[in-house]
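Hi Y.,

Following your request, here is the sequence exactly as I used it, all 534 residues.
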Amino acid sequence: MGDIAIPCFVFAKILHKNPAVIASDLKNGLEQKKEELGLDEVICVGGYCNLFVNRKLFVENTLTKAADGNHGVEKIGEKKTVCMDYSSPNIAKNFHVGHLRTTVIGNSLYKIYDKLGYNVVRINHLGDWGTQFGKLIVAYKKWSSKEAVEKNGIQELLDIYVKFNNEKEEHPELMDEARSWFVAMEHGDEEALSIWEWFKDISMVEFERVYDMLGISFDSYTGESFYREKVPALVELLKEKNLLIESQGANVIDLSEYDMAPCMITKKDGSSIYHSRDIAAVLYRKEKYDFDKCLYVTGLEQSLHFKQVFKAIELMGLDYYKDLVHVPYGLVSLDGEKFSTRTGNIIYAEDILNEAVKRAYELIEEKNPSLENKGEIAKKVGIGAVIFHDLFNQRIKNINFSWKEVLSFDGTTGPYVQYTYARAKSVLRKYGKELQCTLTDCQALTDDISFALIKTIGGYEKAVNVAAESYEPSIVARYLISLCTDFNKFYQECPILKEENVKTKEARLYLVYVTSQIVFECCGLLGIECPEEM
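Below is the corresponding structure, written out as C-alpha cells. Let me know if you'd prefer a different format.
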C-alpha cells in the first residue's frame, strides 16, 4: 500500500469498467502531474492506485504548516456565531455525573468551534423554574429551616425534596399546595420569589465549585426562569398563526401529523412548561445573537422534546429551524466501583473529581515521589483522566466508568496522553539549548517511523474539522491517541539527544517540538491541562 491508497472498485459500477483498468487510467493521469502534486511514484496493484508522496517535500510542508500560529487549522468560522446550550444543572439538586457529561462534551465543542474561528456563545440554561420549586417551598416550610439550609446547603434541599415526594403518596393535598406556590411564583409573588432566589444562590455556590475544578466558564446563565415572562407573548404569537389548540384545558400544538405527541405550551392553570420556555429561548437567542447554528448538548432521552420544539419553530414559519441541532449523549454506568457519595443512588460530579485527584496523587507518589508540585499535577492528571475517559468514547454510546481504566498510564487514557506530552517536554529541557524552531534537514525525517508520525501530524486539521461537523469530540481524542502512539514509537526507536549527526539531531528535536505543540493543542480542545512533568 502507498502513502495514499485509492480503491477503484467503488467507481466500477459508475464507469462500467474493470477496477484494474480504472486504476491504470488514474495512474496515467497522475503521473503527468507528479511533480505538481508532490508525488514520487504511482503504482497499481489490482484495483488499487497507490500514491507514494515525495517525503522530503511532504515533511517540509506538513511541519511548516503545523508550526504556524493556528497549527494548520483554517479559521473557517470567522463572522459566524454558534450558540451552545450545555451543562444546565437543576437548581436545588446536586451536580451529578450526568451533568458532567453534558458539561465536558459541550466545553470541548466550544473549544473546537472557537479554534475554527467561530464566535461561540456558551449558554448555561439553568433548570431554575417549574413545579418542582413549588414542591420545594412546601417542603422547606414544613420540614426545614433557614439554619438547616445554610448549614447543609444543597444537600438539605435535596433531602427535603425527596421527603416531599415520599410524603405526597399518603398526603396528596401536598401537590395542591405545591401547585399553588408555583402559580404564585409565575405571578410574581414576593415571598415565593424570594425563597426561590435564595435556593438558586445556594445551588450556584456548588455549581461554580465544580466549574472551577473543570476550568469551565459560561457567557450566559439565562435559565428557564428568564423566559417565563416571554411565554404570554409566545402564546399570542402561536394563536395568531393558528397553531394552538385546547386539550383538557391546556394549550398545545398538535403534532400528530408528524407522529409526535402534542407539544404543550401552557398547562390548564396557565403556567408555562419547559416546551414553551425552550421555544421562547430559541426566539430570544436568534434575536439577541443572530446565530448561524444553535446546539443543545443534552441526554438522548430528550430527543423527542427537541424534535417537538424544533418542529414548532418550523411550523411558525421560521426558516432557522434548520440551524437548531440536538447533540445527544448516552448514559454513564459504574463498573461496581465504590464512590464517596453522599447518597446511595446518585453519583455526584464533585465526588468523582475529588476521588480522581486523590487517586492520581497516590499514583504519582508511588511512581515519582520526588516530583515537585505533586498536588497541582495530581489535580491536572486526575481531572484530565475523567474528562478524557468521557470524551474518548463516542458521545452517543453509554460509557462504563472504571477507575482502573480511567487512571491507567497505558492505553487510551488521559494520563497516557499527558505523560507523552511531559516526555516530549523533558527531551526539549534536556537538550538545554534554545531550539531553532525551523526545519534544518527534511531528509533526516523521511525514514518510515519519523514519516509515520509526520503523516499523523498532518491529519490534525482534518480531525478538528470532522469533530466540528459531527459534533463529536471523540474524533479529536482518538486522533490524539494515534499521535501519542506514533510519537512514543519514534521516541523509542529514533535516537534524539544521543544522535551524533547534528542536523539529524536538530531535525528530530524539531519534530519533538512540533508534536508537543499538537498534543498540547488537542488536550486544550478536550479541556485537559498538560503538566510539563509527571
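The longest strand covers residues 39-45.

Thanks again,
Q.
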